[in-house]
Amino acid sequence: MKEWLSHTADRKDSIGHWCYTGTLNFCNIMGSEIDTKSIEPVRNAVSLFGHKGDQKKYHQSTSSKSDCEKELEDLTKELANCKVQLEAKHSAHMQALLKVEHNQKMIHELSTLLKRSDIERNKNMNECSECNALKEELKSKVADQNLETVKIRDQLSHVLSELKAIQRELLNKETELVAARDSELNALAKTNQLESALEAEKEQKEELLQQVKELNKVIHNSKLASKLATLSEKDEEIELATKATSQVQKQLEDMRKDVEMLQGLQNQPMEKFTLADSLPLEPMQANETLILSEHSTINAINHLNQFNIDMELNERKIMEQSVYIETLEMELSQLKQELVVAKEEINSLNITNESIKSELHETKAQLNMNKGSDIEAQVEIALLKSQLQEHRLAYGHVAEVDERNSENNENDHVSPKYIVEKIHGVQGLVGEVGRLSELALMKKELENASVKISELRARAEQALSRAELAENAKAALEDKIRRHREHRQRRRAALTALREESTPKPFSPSSSYGQGTPKTYQPLGKVLNMKL
After folding, report:
1. Which of 88, 127, 224, 418 has the fewest beta carbons under 10 Å from its own?
2. Are the C-beta atoms of 3 and 19 separated by less than 8 Å?
3. What residues contact residue 433 under an 8 Å CB cut-off, 6+ apart?
4. What is the rounded distance in angstroms from the CA atom of residue 532 to the CA atom of residue 523?
5. Does the entry feature the keyword Coiled coil, yes or no (predicted)?
6. Which range has highest mean pLDDT (130-139, 213-222, 302-311)?
7. Using alpha carbons only, what angle is made at residue 103 by residues 99 and 108, rounded to the nearest 5 degrees?
8. Which of 415, 435, 423 is closest to 398 using CA atoms?
9. Across 52-79, average pLDDT
10. What are the CA-CA distances from residue 167 to residues 162, 356, 452, 453, 460 (Å)?
């Protein structure tokens, strides 16, 4: 019995030691610390059984049966206690095994997570290197874009100043165009008035031509009447002269007869004295009659010469009037041609005015479109400026975060939050690059708008030059019309003078040739104030 008890004690000691050493080795193998509080009762039991076994071996010879019985009771009690302790230790050992299995699973999961984190760390490191390269490229691009934005701002300010100047010029041009339209309307009204005046002048010219024809007829009739009157006067004067000469001849014959009779009666004494008293009176009368007849003939000859001179002057006047009428007809034909040319010029000016008006409407529409596009561009530029400022602030914040993370991650430990923030920053920079490309497109659109504005300026200058040419042409037409009016007034004055001079005057022949006084005739050149 003692041997069995000693064997069981040794076995218990070996089992407890094995369990203790096994747990320690397992913990050393796994490299982890396990709670040993649940194993301490086993240790105490092993130490107790070992100490008692040694005492029993030492006191086997000296022990007695009473002691053995007491020891057996104690041993039974201790065995029961050991069984209870073993069951508790077994349950604790099973729990420890379960914990170990759980810890192994956790270790496996943690190892897989570590591997994944290493892979992700390598990927993130590569991405970070790529992001750093992209960041440097984007920094260089942002610097270039900042320079370009400064240039674009300068260009935009210059373009805005040019647009303001162009708007002012356009307002001035619009005012000038309104004034030009008013002048064109006035010129059109004047042209209409001039056309009506020219039509009235045509009618007056036709009336004047008819009057000139009538005057020519009257002049021809007056010429014929004057010639007939002069011929009748000459015939009468010739008849009177013949009668006077016949009377003088008769008187001379009577005087001859008287002289012959005086010569025959010279021998008679008393009759001689009576005849001598009567005869001296008769020769004196005959001489007086002869003298009177000679004077009358001389006066008649002078009157005939003066009449011939007057006829020549009248013929000259008629020739001058015919020449002047021919010149008037030539001037009428020239005026008709000038009227045709003026009408053609007026039509061309109307066409140019219509083209200028259409161009002005087109330029106004294009300017309105450009104004709308300029306003939209200014709004977009303001929005892009605000977005640029926001992205600059965000980029500065990202740079600060990068510096902080670089300081915190000197041992190549990268956090996922940092990577996510960096990716968002890169995406924001990519969006900024897209917006900068939009800025470049806006710059091109602004350049195209400036080119269109320069074209509109050239068109407006051409329209102004055309308007100036039209005004000059109108002024030239007004000068021509004024000259035509002055010429018409002069012609009317000349025609009135011709009418006054062409009216036939009643011929009043002189009753006596001795009382005829020479007439003074005014030449046609003095009447018409013409320089021949």
Report:
1. 224
2. no
3. 138, 141, 145
4. 12
5. yes
6. 130-139
7. 150
8. 423
9. 68
10. 8, 20, 14, 10, 12
Contact of 305 with 237, CB cutoff 8 Å:
no
Name the pTM for this structure.
0.29
**Residue 438 near residue 384 (C-beta atoms within 8 A):** yes
Sequential DSSP letters for 45-111: HHHHHHHHHHHHHHSTTT--HHHHHHHHHHHHHHHHHHHHHHHHHHHHHHHHHHHHHHHHHHHHHHH
Q: Where are the domains of the chain?
A: 2-134, 149-242+314-528
Residue 491 has pLDDT above 50, yes or no: yes
Name the pLDDT band for 321 (thresholds 50, 70, 90): low
Cα–Cα distances in angstroms (integers) from residue 376 to residues 59, 157, 300, 429, in the given order? 114, 16, 109, 25
- Name the more confident of 78 and 435: 78
* Cα 478 from Cα 197, distance rounded (Å): 13
Q: How many CB atoms lie within 10 A of CB 115?
A: 10
Q: Is the CB of residue 39 less than 8 Å from the CB of residue 85? A: no
Q: Dig out the tokens for 472 from the structure.
A: 């000059």
Tokens of 93: 């050992």
Q: Would you say the C-alpha torsion 469, 470, 471, 477 has a positive or negative sign?
A: positive
Contact at 8 Å (CB) between 435 and 392? no
The encoded tokens of residue 100 equal 């170990």
Structure tokens at 163: 């647009």
Give the model's pLDDT for residue 182.
78
> How many whole angstroms separate alpha carbon 313 and alpha carbon 311?
5
Residue-wise pLDDT tens digits, 228-261:
776 777 677 677 767 766 776 676 677 667 666 6
